[in-house]
Specification:
It is a single chain. By secondary structure, the protein is an all-beta fold. The chain has a domain of 99 residues. 0% of the residues lie in helices and 43% in strands. It contains no helices and eleven strands. The strands form three sheets. A four-stranded antiparallel β-sheet has the order 4-5-6-7, with no helix packed on it. The protein has a four-stranded antiparallel β-sheet with strand order 8-9-10-11, with no helix packed on it. The protein has a three-stranded antiparallel β-sheet with strand order 1-2-3, with no helix packed on it. It is globular.
Length: 166
């Protein structure tokens, strides 16, 4: 995920397990910057959603050994992590999905709700298609939960590539 200056990377999987670290690459300076790790509340994970909005880096859901339904953000100006307490109707816990923020909306496509016993050799179970959720001021509960009609007929999938054009 990127803002006007940096490309951000959070977490992922490596030889030592799942990470909960946040890095930024500045292509102008050609340098990497490491931010504080997420701490105990933000477990290392892969397949999470990542968005930049309101001077914060948002980490949404992902896979920690099980699908998660938690939301965390790193406040760039305050240099600290916080967890958002969500309530009400919300997306199903999942990992390995597409997510982006455009204005006041978060768009999520697909995702695994149950991993495959074959690991990356086969897709896990997916049950949701393209959905748009309104995230009220990026804090509190999810609102405006609805499925998008334009995605009707789009074959449900995992392990795909997608691009966002602004």
């Amino acid at each position: 995920m990127a803002d006007d200056r940096r490309v951000y990377i959070f977490g992922g999987c490596g030889d030592s397990g799942r990470f909960n670290d946040l890095w930024a690459y500045d292509p102008v300076d050609g340098k990497w910057m490491e931010y504080p790790t997420g701490g105990g509340g933000l477990k290392g994970r892969g397949g999470q959603g990542l968005a930049v909005a309101q001077d914060k880096i948002w980490v949404v859901y992902g896979f920690t050994g099980m699908e998660m339904d938690d939301v965390h953000y790193f406040h760039l100006a305050q240099n600290k992590w916080s967890q958002v307490e969500t309530s009400g109707e919300k997306p199903t816990a999942k990992g390995v999905f597409f997510m982006c923020a455009i204005g006041k909306y978060v768009y999520i496509y697909g995702g695994e709700v149950d991993p495959s016993d074959l690991g990356h050799l086969g897709p896990g179970s997916s049950r949701e298609r393209f959905t748009r959720w309104t995230r009220r001021r990026w804090s509190g509960g999810w609102a405006g939960l609805r499925e998008s009609s334009w995605a009707e007929g789009l074959f449900l999938r995992t392990f795909y590539a997608i691009s966002l054009i602004k």
